[in-house]
Structures are given as C-alpha cells and as structure tokens.
Amino acid sequence: MIRVGVVGAMGKMGQEVVRAVCNDEQLELVCAVDINQIDLQVCPPKEVRIMGDLKSAIVAHKPDVMVDFTQPKNVFENAIICLENGVRPVIGTTGLTDSQIEELKEISKAKGLGCLIAPNFSTGAVLMMMFAKQAAKYFDNAEIIELHHNQKKDAPSGTAIKTALMMSETGKMTFAQGNCEETETIDGSRGGTSYSDIHIHSVRMPGYIASQEVLFGASGQLFKIRHDSMDRKCYMDGVKLAVKYVADHNEFVYGLENIM
Fold first, then answer.
1. How many helices (H) and strands (E) does the chain have?
2. pLDDT mean over 161-175
3. Is 55 a catalytic residue?
4. Which of 24, 28, 31 is nearest to 56 (CA)?
C-alpha cells in the first residue's frame, strides 16, 4: 500500500485527487494539506482531516508520495520540503521555471528520491503533445493556442510550454520560417514567443476547463491537433499512474509521456 498525501486538497483538482486515491485499492490517503484549513473530514470513514502546514503533515503522517495541486507561487517550496523530508513529490501545479525544474532534478538525484512533474495528467493531452512532436518534423511553421478557465493564474499553461519544448527537440531553430518582419500595434497581439520561435496564445474564459490546439502550416495545407478537457476526472488515471511509478523509481521525470 502506497501512503499518499495531497497538497491543495480543498481545490477543485485536489478534491478529485483525494477521491481518486480513496477509491484505489493500492493507495492509502494518510494526510491532506490546504492553506484554507477547515475542520473537514475527507475519505470517510478513515477520518483524514485537513492540515494547514505541509511539513507538519509530513512529520505526523509520513506519506511515501505527496501530490501537489496548489498555486504557482507555492509549488517550488512545497517540492523542496517534500524532498528534504524524504517524500517523493508528484507535481501537477504549473508555473515552475526551467531553472526551478533543474534545481528539483538535482535535489531529487542527490536525495535518491523519485520526483515527477507533469504539466498535464490527461492521457489525451499527453498524446496530443507526443503527436505534435512527431508533426513538428514535417512542418516549418507552428503556433499554439491554449484555452483555460479564468481562474487559472499562470500563462501560458505548463502544457503549452511543454508542448513547445517537445517540438523544439526536433532540432529546428525556428517554427516561423518565411514570416515577414512584424509590428504589433497592440503589445502582445502575436502572443508570447517560446522555444524555437513558437508563438503561444493564452485565452482565459469562463466555461473552459482546459483546451489546447497546435497549429501547423505549410504551403497549401494546415494541420491541427486539439485536445479538450471537459471534466477534471480525466486527469485522475494519469495522477494514479504517476503516484505508483514514483513510489517505485528513484529518478526525476518531467512529463507523463516518459512513463506511459
């Protein structure tokens, strides 16, 4: 039985993770952490209650794995607390910088503990990223549009950034070949420029959960890859896969595609 804790347990994603862990026979929910500490019982009849401090929860309940769905401003510190206290983090919160990811990789290696960061836990979204990487070999122009609910604090999404990174790994220096010299009459009209000059456009709107479209263009043709999440339950199979993997492997993993 893998002992699991959830940070951000009162958030929408956190609540789904709590339910998924409680309903899996190979996992045991031992602690739940949230800054909005509420005297609320989760996972009955086990009576796991919300705690307000991550380190205190780790010391008191000794989880093997801690799943983090909190806020971009907290996730890096949370991951360090986990690793420094012998707990393997599974991170679904986006907003980590490249340098922070690299630092967590070094700490994970030094501690001999597994650590998994996944910008997206939906198997469909991960397949979208993998397909985009394959398509990138055959197109010289590409852009990404990502669409999320208007309570998402970071932009662009971690999924979009990871997708651009994977596409850039084909070795192409730019995905804006042949574009004319541009002038934005309104700043930001062309989105943000990421790896290999891939433009990323972020939309925030009520009604969305998470969607992404990768656009490829060439003379005489357009190719689109799109994924839409309509329910947060679609992430839970990926979360459970990550928890079970990181519990048994002493390695750093960035991206769910590496264990699928």
1. 7, 13
2. 95
3. no
4. 31
For residue 204, what is the DSSP state? E
**The pLDDT value given to residue 49:** 80
Q: Give the Cα separation of 209 and 108 in Å (integer).
A: 31
3-state secondary structure of 21: helix
pLDDT digits (tens, 9 = 90+) for 64-113: 999 999 988 999 999 999 999 999 999 998 889 999 999 999 999 999 99
Domains of the chain, first to last: 2-117+232-258 (3.40.50.720), 123-229 (3.30.360.10)
Residue 98 is which amino acid?
D
Per the listing, tokens 């205190």 go with: 56
Core vs surface per residue 194-215: b (16+ CB within 10 A) or e: bbbbbbbbbeeeeebbbbbbbb
Does the model's pTM come out above 0.85? Answer: no
Q: Could you tell me which residues come within 8 angstroms of residue 18 by beta carbon, excluding any fewer than 6 positions away?
A: 6, 9, 29, 32, 42, 43
- Taking alpha carbons only, the member of 148, 125, 118 closest to residue 240 is 118
Positive or negative: CA dihedral 133, 138, 141, 145: negative
Tell me whether residue 111 is one of the annotated catalytic residues: no
Q: Exactly one of 61, 111, 148, 240 is catalytic; which is it?
A: 148
Q: Please identify which of the residues 152, 172, 201, 227 carries the catalytic annotation.
A: 152
Side by side, the strands of the sheet bearing 2-7 are: 41-42, 48-51, 27-33, 2-7, 65-68, 88-91, 115-117, 252-254
For the sheet containing 199-204, what is the strand order? Answer: 192-193, 199-204, 141-148, 210-218, 221-229
